[in-house]
Write a structure and sequence with these properties.
This protein has five helices and no strands. By secondary structure, the chain is mainly alpha-helical.
Amino acid sequence: MKAELFYLLLTAILTGVLWIPVVIGYVSSGERPLTPANYKVAPTSPLADWVNRANRAHLNAVENFAPFAAVVLIAQMTGVSTALTETCAAVYFFARLVHAVVHISGSGLFLARTLAFTVGWIAFMTFAVFVFLQRAM
């Protein structure tokens, strides 16, 4: 498996498990027991801050996964795989991992969440532009 696909797989796994803290937060709030009736309507009372942050981290991961996956798959289908694309994929994954951890933890230390997001975005854009320049021109 090429490195880019490996990091795409890791990013998919990360995105796929980020809902778990949200569910744990809903269940541990103690306000709503798990019954069929409680599945019909989302809770309206405030949840703990970390639960809201976990939900936002999950949504952010979902929103950013599709463009990254598209670029990785296009690169694979067109035969673009270099040290640059491998590095971009790795940096993207680790930036997304840091982003999720910092987001859920609520740490505002040195704007770490914004920095992690920006590093991931730059890695994604570098990867995308490189693939574009290699195959579209």
